[in-house]
Amino acid sequence: MQVIIPSRLNFGDIIGIVAPSHPFPKDKNSDYYQHFLKGKNELLEMGFRIKESKNLKAVEWWRAGTPKERADDINSMFQDPEVKAIIAHDGGNDCITVLELLDYKLIKNNPKPFIGFSNITNLHSAFFTKSHLVGFHMGLLTYELGWVWNYLQPQDKGEGKDYFKKVLVKSEPLGLIQPITQWSSWKTGIAEGFLFGGNLSMLDSLVGTPYFPKVTDLKGALFFWELDNSHSYRIERVLTHLKYIGLFDVISGMIIGKLIDIKKTSHGNLEEPSLKEIVLHNLKDYDFPILADVDFGHKTVQIPMPLGISAKLDSDKLRLEFLESAVK
């Protein structure tokens, strides 16, 4: 698959803000609203301008407006020539309902960085599959820039912020990614391929739909994933499902983010395996390398993981290298 790489941003360019899933914080006295404001201020301090979507503050049930309102905002931001990139205000649990309403031809003809992670994995996978667009798996406006960045150590925040800017404005490959925290090798080896992945649960929910690539299109991929606020059994269940569809027969390597908030499954005195044990047990029949504890996921500093670009990992040396740029 030939991926479409969008144009790089210049400082002063406009980044559009949309709410594809979780609703906008209405209470201006809430911490959540303050996180939204802080996220906007972070973009402004980086040198970008911002533009809010028409339906940003819409609400229906537990989501940010109807599926059509949210899809209309996304389509409009891609169509708007003033907007050079788009960022999701937050994740949530309802992104999947907009996928059938998006104009993938419009998106393909107006490629732009679309920024977010977690529930936004639905959009990244759909854009990659239907429009062949590179996906920008990185910090959400309110959650990451407005909240997580607020409690990180200053050095960690600075490095995360630097990566955030570089991946959007630098048309040369980022090259060797320097770990911000400690990474781990779970299975030895070296692999090279294109990045594909996101939130493990979201990816699993898309399998078998038009918004998830054919397994044959993922041949040679470096499959990356993260998960949050789930029980440990879900990791085994999803990995088993992905094994059954043949994904692990075609990928060349795996990159796992920070698994910070995974709850134990076992009851009483039953043994609870470690997360590493769960992963290695389910992948014991495969010899691709696994690099783990990499700096992406929930409640942690993020390095961008651009879907579709070529990368190389060496799990023995704890190295991850981006071989091409996510923008041109």
Keywords:
328 residues; alpha/beta; Rossmann fold; Glucose Oxidase, domain 1; 8-stranded mixed β-sheet; 6-stranded mixed β-sheet; 9 helices; 16 strands
Can you put this structure into words, describing what you see?
With 328 residues, the chain is α/β, with parallel strands linked by helices. The protein has 2 domains: 14-169, 3-Layer(aba) Sandwich (Rossmann fold), CATH 3.40.50; 175-322, Glucose Oxidase, domain 1 (3-Layer(bba) Sandwich), CATH 3.50.30. It contains 9 helices and 16 strands. The strands form 3 sheets. The chain has an 8-stranded mixed β-sheet. Helix 4 links the parallel strand 4 and strand 5. Helix 1 (31-46) crosses helix 5 (141-151). The longest helix has 16 residues, at 31-46. The radius of gyration is 19 Å and the shape is globular. The mean pLDDT is 96.
